[in-house]
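[Meeting: bench + compute handoff]

Bench side (C.D.) handed over the final construct sequence. Compute side (W.E.) agreed to return the predicted structure before the next meeting so the bench team could plan truncations. Sequence as handed over:
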Amino acid sequence: MEQQHEALPPEYFARYDESTDTNFYDQPRLVVHIDEGAIKAAGRLYADLLPPAGALLDMMSSWRSHLPPEFRYETMVGLGMNPVELAQNPQLTSYVLRDLNANPALPFDDSSFDGAICTVSVQYLTRPVEVFAEVGRVLKPGAPFVVTFSNRCFPSKAVRVWAATDDQQHTRLVSLYFQRAGLFDRIESYDRSPRSWLGDPLYGVAGWKRAEDEG
């Protein structure tokens, strides 16, 4: 990933805790990481951007996917690290265990999904451009990848560039991941933060897989 290194030096992705992620996520955490207002905001964004009745991929999934209950899809595959959490997610139709920082390759065929999401987890990726490129590979042409994030994280596992930047810079950073992945021809950012100053903010960046004839 030469382009990643030119724009995003490897030291940006160091973390305070460099221990194996598999050990960190070994114990299930059956809690939500953003408040109810931000959860609803993420769900509304997903409903606005994802195609209905499609095959979806939930990246870095857990025990909740936060899609609105009325949103209809054909299948949703969760990719995460804790089998207990994934097994308790009622919106998943199947799941796969994968540590993306150890191996960013996705175990799916090209053009397998109509859409993908990643909820409040992008800050933990140490090889984000490779992961975004893999998501692009497994999406069908024209399919969206919607990434949401807030101001919450496990500080010891968030990468240095995330910890050192603010919310607006996080939006630009995630947009850069999409750009460097080289497979998305439309990238848009969103501020869906609830209007209450007491609540968690909610931001999103979405990229659409480019058409096959664009090379």
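W.E. noted at the follow-up: Residues 2-214 form a domain with the Rossmann fold fold (CATH 3.40.50.150). C.D. will use this when planning the next construct.
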